[in-house]
Design a protein that fits this description.
The chain has five helices and six strands. 33% of the residues lie in helices and 24% in strands. It has a six-stranded antiparallel β-sheet with strand order 1-2-3-5-4-6.
Length: 148
């Protein structure tokens, strides 16, 4: 079967609609903004957080942020590799991670999911521990000591 120009137009339109998320069931509820970039202070301002600095080093800057009952850690990294190494180590402790370019936010699942609506990014989940891991679901205390 040979494709002709009239046949290509509807196929191209269908491909564009599929790639952009437009369609009959696209209600826009899961719209995620472009992933934010910038300094820890810039990201915190975007998230309407006054950062409580915990670590201010050359390779990592880390602060506690809070929104109501939802507290989370916001960290920025000097390199992509340092960020990935930190995340891979931290994920052993469980938790939920919102990951952007050279930054990560760590907290309860609902907190990072809400934060994604502001900062964009990709959601990642740490190792799930069985047996009432309340200490692993807090998302902030166990991560405060990571230094990359």
């Amino acid at each position: 079967m040979r494709l002709t120009r009239p046949m290509l137009a509807p196929a191209a339109l269908a491909a564009v609609l599929a790639l952009t998320g437009c369609g009959a069931d696209g209600d826009g509820a899961d719209t995620v903004p472009a992933t934010a970039t910038g300094s820890l202070e810039h990201l915190a301002a975007e998230a309407e957080c006054t950062p409580n600095m915990q670590t201010d080093a050359d390779t990592i800057r880390q602060a506690l942020c809070g929104k109501g009952d939802g507290k989370y850690v916001l960290a920025t990294f000097s390199t992509d590799r340092g960020q990935r190494e930190w995340i891979n180590t931290a994920k052993d402790y469980g938790g939920f991670y919102l990951v952007g370019r050279k930054w990560v936010a760590v907290g309860h699942q609902d907190v990072v999911a809400d934060l994604r609506g502001t900062l964009g990014g990709t959601l990642e989940q740490g190792v799930q521990h069985r047996g009432g891991g309340a200490g692993h679901s807090a998302g902030h205390g166990e991560h405060a000591g990571h230094s990359g």
